[in-house]
Design a protein that fits this description.
By secondary structure, the chain is mostly helical. The protein has 14 helices and no strands. The chain has one domain.
Length: about 300
């Protein structure tokens, strides 16, 4: 059973993230940055004990590890979540399934980024899989609709989802690097606290504190549920699994995210993907599976 715990951890986090999309869609009229700020502040408070306990470990961190932690806090914690939440705010224009499926382009962005920054060569296999994934993501988003029928709001939501995938894809690579030098408890705590501090600074500087008082009781309850389950807790569970699994294996188990999201969208909203979109989903997911196995 212990051998299966890392796999179960990543699967559990993936399922929680699919529920997260449903919860965030109910907050479509709340500014995305405010949602990010509050959920990370709550999560940071929850994980302060881990930060105190691991303070000596934090003091020993090197410059590269700090750069990785800051990147996943700013790019993954703020930008990725902001783009993702913004995409889900177009609840009347795009399916939850489409937004989630576009997130699986993360390995494509991660490897491309490594090629640009680290000058790693791209194989012919990668180029073929990249084209296949791009074709699949196109079909997932638009199906076989003619260009004249494309909705502007749908295009914006899809672009926001792609930006989120880029932000999280780069953060996954640097998060794996940071886990070589720091425990998953500390990296979760640092990400939440740094993201919360930056968000608080932006809110104070922009004089938007008054927006917090305008939230309804129901919206506060949803934000609390997000922070204590699909947000900070899911992140903690995911880093536990990622710390004990190869990145390629973690990518496979993360496929429970789009699968469960499609099931939720079908049961809860009665929405299902068209045949062309389903074919695109198969192309997208299968190409990402093969890509994750490529050294």
């Amino acid at each position: 059973m212990k051998r299966a715990l890392p796999q179960l951890a990543v699967i559990s986090a993936a399922i929680l993230w699919s529920l997260d999309g449903l919860l965030r869609q109910t907050l479509y009229n709340v500014p995305a940055f405010l949602i990010i700020s509050i959920e990370h502040i709550i999560g940071a408070v929850i994980f302060i004990p881990f930060l105190i306990k691991g303070w000596q470990e934090i003091l020993k961190l090197g410059q590269r590890t700090w750069i990785s932690v800051l990147w996943i806090s700013i790019c993954g914690g703020i930008l990725g979540t902001f783009f993702y939440t913004s995409a889900l705010s177009y609840v009347n224009y795009i399916d939850l399934s489409v937004v989630i499926l576009l997130q699986k382009l993360q390995p494509l962005f991660a490897i491309t980024l490594a090629a640009v920054i680290l000058k790693e060569p791209l194989s012919k296999k990668f180029l073929v899989l990249a084209v296949t994934a791009i074709l699949g993501s196109f079909l997932v988003t638009f199906g076989l609709q003619p260009i004249a029928d494309w909705n502007d709001k749908m295009i914006i939501a899809a672009l926001l989802a792609l930006l989120a995938a880029f932000s999280w894809g780069s953060s996954t690579v640097l998060g794996k690097h940071a886990l070589k030098h720091i425990s998953f408890q500390i990296i979760t705590s640092l990400r939440l606290i740094i993201t919360a501090l930056v968000c608080m600074a932006v809110i104070v500087a922009s004089n938007n504190i008054a927006m917090i008082t305008e939230l309804t009781t129901m919206q506060w309850k949803i934000l609390l549920v997000i922070a204590c389950s699909t947000g900070a807790v899911a992140l903690f569970i995911y880093y536990y699994g990622l710390d004990r699994l190869p990145a390629s294996h973690a990518t496979l188990y993360e496929l429970f995210w789009p699968f469960s999201a499609m099931c939720i969208d079908w049961f809860y909203r009665g929405r299902s993907l068209e045949p062309a979109q389903l074919f695109g989903a198969v192309l997208l997911l299968s190409s990402m599976i093969y890509l994750s196995k490529d050294n």
